[in-house]
Design goal:
The chain is mainly beta and 117 residues long. Helix content is 12%, strand content 65%.
Length: 117
């Protein structure tokens, strides 16, 4: 999902393509964080034929701010990741579609979609 097919919707803003997301969202956000730690837990995988769904919890903690004005933040949320192979694309061909929906209270909903292959 690191190409132009990536789309991220978060808190009323959209990033189209990996480079846009990396350069204008993820990169600036991560550069502000120091001593970053994250973890995944309560991972549940569900299979139905070729379709897969995973639900999980995640946590993140980091120190943010400028030197001398750092503060510690903790966050977390729930996530769902889907893989739907061999479904019809908008052009009527067969392909694979993957989507990940991350729910991160209290900041809202992050929706990440990837391409039809």
């Amino acid at each position: 999902m690191n190409d132009d097919s990536l789309t991220v919707f978060e808190s009323g803003h959209a990033n189209y393509g990996w480079a846009d997301y990396r350069d204008n969202h993820l990169g600036p956000e991560m550069r502000e964080m120091k001593n970053t730690r994250y973890a995944f837990s309560d991972i549940k995988i569900h299979l139905a034929g070729k379709t897969a769904c995973a639900t999980f919890k995640y946590t993140i903690s980091a120190d943010v701010g400028e030197p001398g004005k750092m503060r510690h933040v903790d966050g977390g949320g729930l996530a769902t990741a889907l893989s739907l192979p061999d479904i019809a694309t908008p052009m009527g061909t067969q392909g694979q579609f993957e989507v990940s929906i991350v729910l991160s209270p209290p900041s809202g909903v992050t929706l990440i979609t990837a391409r039809f292959q």
